[in-house]
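Hello, quick one for you while I still have it in my head. A protein chain has come my way and I'm curious about its shape. I'm sending you its amino acid sequence along with the backbone structure tokens. I'd be grateful if you could look everything over and explain what you see. Here's the protein in full, and shout if anything looks odd to you:
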Amino acid sequence: MAMPEPSSSAAANSPTEDTGTVSEQSRSAGVVLTEDLLSDSPPGTWVPDYLPGCERMTLPLGTDEEGPFCATLVRLRQQPPATDRPHSTGQPHSTEQARSEAAPVLQIHGWTDYFYNLPTARRWAAAGHPFYALDLRKYGRSLRAHHTPGHIENLADYDAEISAALDVIATQHPDAPPPILCGHSTGGLVAALWAADHQQAVTALVLNSPWLELPGDVPARAAAEGLISPLSRINPLATVKVPRLENYWESLSDEAHGEWQLHPQWRPRKMFPMTLGWLRAVFAGHRRVHGGLGLDLPVLVLLSTGTVYRPQWTPEYQENDGVLDVDLLARRAVRLGHRVTVVRVPGAMHDVFATREPVRSEAFAEVARWMRAYGE
């Protein structure tokens, strides 16, 4: 069975300027990938994150068959002055007043991924939106030595960390509108499913190459489910043997052809082994999307204009989605709800916002136009 590698509104102000650079995010950050990045913060406490200007908070979630697990909420602490924001009036006002004017943003990463894209955070903040990102259980900052990376057996279980994160955000911004929920790849699927069950809790969805269907569409998914589901009930932690290529990592990492410094355990060269239980959970999510989610809030879906699958890395990977079938995703996206906007971004990679300039800026310009239309 050939499987892909899924990685990883509302105010009138819009994220239009890249206020941070990739080199600033990676090399100048002086990132030292040490064990202390995996340690828990005291409950309810913000501690400095390795990304400059960011803090993180551990969200304890309990214990499962592998032991204690948690999620990690990251926030951009340094908000730019009002005069640095697009469409600013230039009138002085406090940071807290500025934050109350726009919905906060909560970003969810994809498969074999975590939050590292500081320029994205700074774009949202420059538009007045307080920025937060969530490293889900058993990913990134939440990954521990006793965990099976990325494993979960029901995507609805992520309700725990998403709800916990939104509770923290609501405490920090009591006068702000409900957050804008952003999701990439598998995180886009998780975000869409969560929003369908909590429509009053979010203002809008911004989905970056969301994994809404298995390449090959319903027939491929049905065949895969028929093989995997019975086995997953016997041993959900068993893994499937599929090609685990490095092509997408090569497109991202500054150790290869990309621009980003990536943690070797949080975003390794090859994707995490896919467990049967995780695959069954994802396929269940795909089935639900196929049936329609009925979302009654604004949804923006950003996709590349092309897909490329090659056995070896080629420059095509930095101008196309090398993970998912974008034409299939475009067709499936319209089943999400009643106000879905699909934007195709020429030259974009699977992670549209990790693509090189000027493609990345064009993607944010599309977000800005969409927010001016649907901003609340």
About this structure: The chain has one domain: 22-374. The two ends are 44 Å apart (CA to CA).
